[in-house]
Amino acid sequence: MKQLYNDLLQEPLKDFNPLEPESTFKSIADDLMKKYCVKCGDNEYYFAELEFYYYRTKDKEMLGINKSQWEGVTYPRIAKAGDFFYHLSGCDICFESHLVKSGKEIDGEGGGILIRSIVDKYGNVTAGPINCVNTMLNACGRGIVPFLDKIEGKRVQDVEVCSTFRFLGDKDYKNIIKGENKDGKYKLAFYNEKISPNDWNKARPSYYSYRFK
User: Fold this and answer.
1) Which residues of the chain fall short of a pLDDT of 50?
2) What is each CA distance from 204 to 67, 101, 171, 188, 200, in whole angstroms?
3) What is residue 74's predicted lDDT score, i.e. its pLDDT?
4) Which residues face 55 on adjacent strands?
5) Which one of 95, 121, 205, 210 has the largest count of C-beta atoms within 10 Å of its C-beta?
6) What is the 3 state secondary structure string of the chain?
7) What is the pLDDT of residues 31-61, one digit of tens each?
8) pLDDT tens digits for range 160-175
9) Alpha-carbon distance 210 to 192, whole Å?
10) Burial 53-79 (b: 16+ CB within 10 A, else e)
11) Whole-number pLDDT of residue 160
12) Architecture of the domain made up of 2-206
């Protein structure tokens, strides 16, 4: 599976431009949403919403004053491509990563894809990264852990990947409305637009159910 994850998560990063990240991330999100799932015992969960975090020290000069938006929100980690990394904000699917804290800065390269929303085979949406962790772990049962796996066939007809600004709370939401969000012009989150607004609202009845195109 290592080569599979490298092709999925690492190959697109070879030509990655941190000043134009959307096309690279959207390609990965498209593959994950249409061809992959989280296996939890006998249960499968498909990706409904993903959020990207990636940082490389060698890009520091290029990023300039925007550096903090990449570095400050990426958790340090040492992980292989495809590993699940659990943290205070939820669970990431990792890129190949060697990111360590060096004083007040992060050194190295890597990051992950935060699982923000999932949907089961019956169309039930679980929204919010902590809710996703709880749902996946509870579905696994004793002694079983969630893992990334290919699904039978593709879900092309059920998925339309749309990009949006990532936001972590009410303050970010209001800043996006005012055009002052920390990600500036970047849309680093992706969601399945074919899930109905009503399903989003039932899963997460708050400002989070709104999507910025």
Assistant:
1) none
2) 31, 34, 17, 20, 6
3) 84
4) 110
5) 95
6) CHHHHHHHHHHHHHHCCCCCCHHHHHHHHHHHHHHEEEEECCEEEEEEEEEEEEEEHHHHHHHHHHHHHHHCCCCCEEECCCCEEEECCEEEEECCEEEEEECCEEEEEEEEEEEEEEEECCCCEEECHHHHHHHHHHHHCCCCCCEEEECCCCCHHHCCEEEECCCCCHHHHHHHHHCCCCCCCCCCEEEECCCCHHHHHHHCCCHHHCCCC
7) 999 999 999 988 999 999 999 999 888 887 6
8) 999 988 876 677 777 7
9) 13
10) bbbbeebeeebeeebebbbebbbbbeb
11) 95
12) Roll (3.10)
pLDDT score, position 179: 75
Q: What is the pTM of this model?
A: 0.91
Q: What does the domain layout of the chain look like in residue ranges?
A: 2-206
